[in-house]
Amino acid sequence: MKAKTLSLPLLMIFFFFHLSPSTSKRIFNNPSVFSSSASLSSRNAERLIKSFNLTPMHDVNLIPKGSPDAPRLFESQIDFPATIGAQNASGGPSVQEFGHYAGYYTLPRSKSAKMFYFFFESRNNSTDPVVIWLSGGPGCSSSVALFYENGPFTISEDLSLSRNEFGWDKVSNIIYVDQPVGTGFSYTSDISDLRHDETGVSNDLYDFLQAFFKEHPKFAKNDFYITGESYAGHYIPALASRIHSGNKKKEGILINLKGFAIGNGLTNPEIQYAAYGDYALDMKIISESDHESLKQDYVECQSFIKKCNLDGGLDCDSAYETCNNIFGQIMSKIVGKNYYDIRKKCVGSLCYDFSKMEKFLNQENVRKALGVGDIEFVSCSTTVYDEMRGDWMHNLEVKIPALVEDGINLLVYAGEYDLICNWLGNSRWVDQMSWSGQKNFGSAKTVPFLVDGKEAGLMKSYGSLTFLKVHDAGHMVPMDQPKASLQMLQNWMQGRLNTSTVPRVGL
Description:
Helices cover 35% and strands 15% of the residues. It is an alpha/beta fold.
């Protein structure tokens, strides 16, 4: 059985894309041809796959209907060390002492979709909070975070696994989900199961969690947190709102939602696209005249975003094209720079090399251990990305005030050197969010976030809301600052992040 193969090899990892000067509508007063949003996203996808050294064999896991060898596994416990060769590099407790699971749950609001996930029990205590991690794209597998950011293991050059000293499973029971359907190992045999908006995405995730807690009832009463980064700035508020609504209506198993955390996310595009020029100017990427030019371009961008959020449809495609021209113009000034971390240059076509993840997960013995049958791993899916393109410019911040008003905690954090979802745009939408604590949050003191007695970031808090700018980090904070990110998660879940004297986590 093979997944559907398209002519375009992939999409981008986590979130955005690289616009070359030739794709921009105007490179600082130089007119050029502006392409359609569909062809624009396809070209960006091709560039991105080269940047991250990902080469999925298939574009989306869309299998033939009635495939006799489709995976039927509900869930099984996996023994990574025995089947794959994991090493206990940190010298801590044996890997075998902890529960590792992988499997599929059927999505009841679909025709034939199966959602794949990994679940790792806490190394500390099964009563620790349950955390779900969502990667972005849209259309990228959460396995990227599992193996390169905050999972229990890291992949060595020989494709063996070693313990991640700062994995988030040290303080939580953590779930990594391949979603929306079609990416990673998740699959369907009906193209109508591919999602187009946050309603479809959040319903699938809610149904997945209902199935998960039914299968794992001992975790159902644990505190529950939603985390993720990049385009998950859309997914996370949508899922939090869906869970909160389901709990209030007593739809199924009550999910003990305590908080949600957005890392370098896209949440309120109208505010965040306005910040591109300001961030680029502050970081000395563009000149004052460039900045003034971008301000003029933003007028049209803002107009389309407003229409998109009001009427949807073609206005969302127009917003996608017009607004992403702003990012393209900035990138034309720093060709070869890593827009996920502007301190760094891309080496050749590679800004990051995540190819070991693909090789590892597509090994026959690994697929057998995971119970995925002949399904091959799709690291990122262009098809899923294109299906979700109309969702891009929607404002998901509007779902948040009702949540924080009800005492559900929100942490927004951002690495200071990320251009694509920069900290400035994220801090602005947080500041401008209308809720009862807005004024007090705005006047709250900025205090240091301390790790080992040293300042690792700057934050401010009021009530249920915290914003944290992380020093010496780009787009992927848990990869760039693993120890700080683990301490951030633990202290936040324990209600200790919003103080100027942050206790040190025992690692």
